[in-house]
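Protein record
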Amino acid sequence: MAREVHVSREVEIPEGVSVEVEGLRVKVKGPKGEILKDFSHARGVNIRVEGNRVIIESFFPRARQIALVGSLASHIRNMIVGVTRGFRYKLKIIYVHYPISVKVEKGRVVISNFLGEKSLRAVEVPGGVRVTVSGQDVIVEGIDIESVSQTAARIEEVTRVRDKDRRKFMDGIYIYAREVA
């Protein structure tokens, strides 16, 4: 099978967004904020801005570089969506046995009375991510999809029920919606 000579992907830069590339570091600025990511692990891949497009390319790529070109294009596309619209994850507080109490204080989400436990469960909230609790919903918002999704996953993980029958003990906090804000 013949080897590919050149692989490239293009990402459109919308109006009101600026993208700066310095080597393999990409900075995207938009109306909602600014995201900086370092893709220095992507050896053999070039990133450049040409007009209103970001071009990610690799010459004489191996399988790893072909995959990296597509992945980096997706990362940059998510960065652009984040600085223009933002991301939102919604979680639902579900309990059958004991009412779960969720509060946001000092950059942490604190979960108490989970399955009647006296101890507190806490999740650190990284900078740039906003968590709000309204009724039975926990809403996680921000411009960086990686930190927003990781925070939502940690909240869900910390309330995972272990060593009990999942059909009876359905208590927990579960992600039910992922959306672009």
Remarks:
- The radius of gyration is 21 Å.
- The longest helix spans residues 63-84.
- DSSP finds two helices and 13 strands in the chain.
